[in-house]
Amino acid sequence: MRKGLFVMMQDQRIVDAMRPMDSDGVLTEALAGPKGGALFFKPDSSQSIAPLRLVEQKRAVAVDFIQKPAPLVSDMVKEVLAKYAPRALFRSVVLVDPASGIQASYWLLERPLVHCLAAQTEFFPDGTCKRLVVDPAKAGKHPFLKIGGLREDVTLVQLGVAESLLRREVTGIRFTKVQLQLSEEERWG
Fold it and tell me: Domain of life, per the record (predicted)?
């Protein structure tokens, strides 16, 4: 029996979710690392990033996952992910809104970039993903990862990770089951 994989995304139904500005490219630069690849394992994971301003909103709701401009997770989500990937790198990020005095602590989630698209993945003419199909053998045993080969920034998590987060009643996270490529044995019965 195969385990499921899920896309983890920010729940867009929460319209007042905090929205950080990355006008200086601080988050993008932090994720790029040397030679343009995400730093997943790094000995000195204590690095923090300068405070980021929030987009001004009448009411800002702190959610457990902020997808854009870069994946940010709450303390609770970080703890769960760290249990599945003890060597994962998380960088501290403080979101601030000087006008309202709001301050929120988040963690920049650095995921391994894994090229795990199956041949059945379909794309629109502009290169965005139309139908996502993942090869579970290529995805390997990573508890969470960033799918390589897509224009979109897609975070994939294993079933156990999704279940652990849902048991904790996270706010602002949605999971969508991913279609997996069938093995030869499954295809031909």
Answer: Bacteria
